[in-house]
Amino acid sequence: MNTTKPRQSSPMILYAVMGMTLAVLLIGAGAFMWLSDNGSGGIGIGGPFTLQDGAGKTVTDKTFRGKYMLVYFGYTHCPDVCPTTLNAVADALDKLGAKAKKIVPLFITVDPERDTASVVKQYAAAFGPEFVGLTGTPDEIATVAKEYRVYYAKHPTGPGPDDYSMDHSSVLYLMDSDGRFVAPVRADLSSGEMASNLSKLLG
User: What span, in angstroms and rounded, lies between the C-alpha atoms of 62 and 115?
Assistant: First the structure.
């Protein structure tokens, strides 16, 4: 007689499923906010910002004039969505060839408490030399997040001051060479799909 007991589901599997579900919901939330604002002819996406780059130098939206900005909001402690998205961006830029020179990919942290200038510099560089990591004060981050209609919130995971994760929407924003919003780019696309979309948007 078979006396083998059924395997119990691992809590880690449950957490992984919950995490992926949340990621999908946040991606949808970001897209919904964009569609709601633009579809009604109301609030636009993007605007002036003042942040710090990896060297601690103050930069603004005007710093990147003449280039398309591909803007992504996330945080360096992000376990899956952020690195997966930024890896896809890096691969997409490789596939774009010469057109990639028109784009500067910006990673803007939503976790300024932990993501200092040096931290975002190292993090962004891991995806390619063209990636620019930006941070700022909590107020500066709140301002730029509001301009881009980005949702983010701290989610405590333990008793310590660093025991938290950040919930955030996951959408890429393509801005033209004058800093005007062009279109959202879904963060869950494959690098090939992303490259195809960007190629069409760049003209």
Answer: 23
**Cα 9 from chain centroid?**
32
Give per-residue burial for 117-134: e unless 16+ CB within 10 Å, then b: bebbbebbeebbebbbbb
Angle at 168 between CA 140 and CA 24, to 5 degrees: 155
Please compute, for residue 14, the number of CA atoms within 13 A of its CA located in the half-sphere on the CB side.
4
Q: How confident is the model at residue 43 (pLDDT cuts 50, 70, 90)?
A: low
What is the rounded CA–CA span in Å between residue 162 and residue 33? 30
Q: How far apart are CA 30 and CA 45, in angstroms?
A: 11
Residue 90 has pLDDT above 70, yes or no: yes
Structure tokens at 184: 């959202």
5's tokens:
């007991």
36/55 Cα distance (integer angstroms)? 37
Q: Which amino acid belongs to residue 146?
A: K
Residue pLDDT, tens place only, 45-76: 999 999 999 999 999 999 999 999 999 999 99
Residue 5: what are its φ and ψ, rounded to 5°?
-80, 145
- How far is C-alpha 6 from the geometric centre of its chain's CA atoms? 41
pLDDT tens-digit map of 134-158: 999 999 999 999 999 999 999 999 9
- C-alpha 85/C-alpha 72 separation (Å) is 9
Domains of the chain: 11-40+48-202 (3.40.30.10)
